[in-house]
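User: Reviewer 2 asked us to show a designed sequence for the structure in our supplementary figure. I'm pasting the structure tokens here. Could you produce the per-position amino acids so we can include them in the response letter?
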């Protein structure tokens, strides 16, 4: 399942809230979608399993351990 793109912050909220939400949006877009640099996207355990670099069992075990 692909993660949908986050909408931009709408007008009508205080400027400090807009600044915070835009910073959070920018950080999440970089990690989740690789925007603007695809090389900056985070790799997930699911990605590793799909690429054949980890087994499903090993990925689940690492995810449960919080590593």
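Assistant: Here is a per-position design you can include in the supplement:
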């Amino acid at each position: 399942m692909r993660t949908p793109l986050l909408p931009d912050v709408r007008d009508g909220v205080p400027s400090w809230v807009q600044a915070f939400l835009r910073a959070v949006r920018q950080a999440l877009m970089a990690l989740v979608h690789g925007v603007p640099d695809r090389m900056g996207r985070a790799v997930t355990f699911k990605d590793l399993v799909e690429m054949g670099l980890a087994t499903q069992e090993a990925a689940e075990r690492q995810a449960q351990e919080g590593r």
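For the response letter, you might also mention the following. The first helix runs from residue 15 to 33. DSSP finds three helices and no strands in the chain.
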